[in-house]
Amino acid sequence: RRVHGGFSEKKMFVSTKKVILNRSLAPQKEYCFLILKRLVSTEQSETIEKPSFVRRNDDQHHFIEHYSKKRPSSITLRELIAFGLSPNPTTLLLNAQFLHEELPIRLSQRVVQLENLPSGLARIPSIRAVRNLYADSFRRIRMFPKPKTLAEDVAFTELLSDIKARHKEMNVFVAQGLQELCTQSDEAKNYDFSAQLDKFYSSRIGIRLLIGQHIALHTPQKGFVGVIEQNLNVFEATKRACNDAVQLCTNHYGQAPEIRYHGKLDATFTYVPNHFYYALIELIKNSLRATVERHEQSGHLPPLDVFIGEGKTDVCVKISDKGGGIPRQALHKIWTYSFSTAQMSPLTKSIAGFGHGMPYSRLYCRYFGGNV
């Protein structure tokens, strides 16, 4: 974000280096090998290590500790696309078995992380509720038998759908917990939780992506590979996020600036539409709120300008506003989760105030190699 003379610009880059679609079978073989490697290592670990836990199945904490020490698999967008291009019962069942072993690792690591958050954050009720929800999801997956038939895959997919729905508002609970702690403790107010929350939210994005991809592969849509759109129109996706942000701004303030679009309006690329939407809407909300609050008494709201650029390896969306920017002495705080230029009230929750919008947008872009 560049700030000069009350005029601010924000740029969102979405890297396509890892998204160039190669329709050869090599990535699919790599992903299948990754799944098989995970399944084989799991069979070995169950044979060697699991008996000590079977005798203590009443104590879930030992299971969580056990799984949290395993390393989660790294999966690229390109591999997800190649593996999901032609879904069939065999690949869907193989993917279900992979998730049956992969998700408990990721969920258990988040439980352990939430239990060890610094400065008293782990003791806040809303954070404990999040921890318990992750632990319960871990328990439900581990209690479900490893899918070995198509019927079991369907039942397992329904379980994942329920878990995904229950985790939908997780980021709100975490934001509320941090805000509650900061009102109770000056030490927490000055503590930078960025490293811990970046790790937590990045993992959350990955978990929801893997679950969403598996669910979507059961109901294929034209132009999509699971949740991944093969030719996402950047202008249409940007306009959708802008329209929703304008509606929120109008509902709260009774007015909203005009948004003008410029640049490469026919640009397309392969990406997850929800990731693009979540990243962009937070930046647009930020610009709309700042513009209205700075100019609402003048009788004229200057427009926002949105520029779309396309290069060989990146798509860039730049948002320019006249909302006054951020005080220079506060620039180093914009990526911290407790910072916001908005005054928080029950009415502002939908448009601003938690201080999670900017860092959250950056995480969505960075997940596949982009940035804000």
Please, could you describe this protein's structure?
The structure is a single chain. The chain has 372 residues and is α+β, with helices and mostly antiparallel strands. 55% of the residues lie in helices and 12% in strands. It has 13 helices and eight strands. It has helices at residues 26-48, 51-54, 60-68, 77-84, 89-115, 125-143, 150-166, 170-184, 186-189, 194-217, 234-253, 273-295, 357-366; strands at residues 2-4, 7-15, 224-225, 228-233, 259-263, 268-271, 304-310, 314-321. The strands form two sheets. The protein has a five-stranded mixed sheet, covered by helices on one side. It has a three-stranded antiparallel sheet with strand order 3-4-6. A hairpin with a 2-residue loop joins strand 3 (224-225) and strand 4 (228-233). Helix 12 runs antiparallel to helix 13 (357-366). The chain is globular, with a radius of gyration of 22 Å. The model is unreliable at 1-6, 15-27 and 44-58 (pLDDT under 50).
Quick description:
It is built from 13 helices and eight strands. With 372 residues, it is an alpha+beta fold. The strands form two sheets. It has a five-stranded mixed beta sheet with strand order 1-2-8-7-5, with helices on one face. The protein has a three-stranded antiparallel beta sheet with strand order 3-4-6.
Q: Largest sheet, if any? A: 5 strands, mixed
Order of helices and strands: EEHHHHHHHHHHEEHEEHEEH
Task: Give the neighbour order of strands across the main sheet.
Answer: 1-2-8-7-5
Proportion of beta-strand residues: 5-15%
Average residue-wise pLDDT: 83
Helix-strand category: alpha+beta
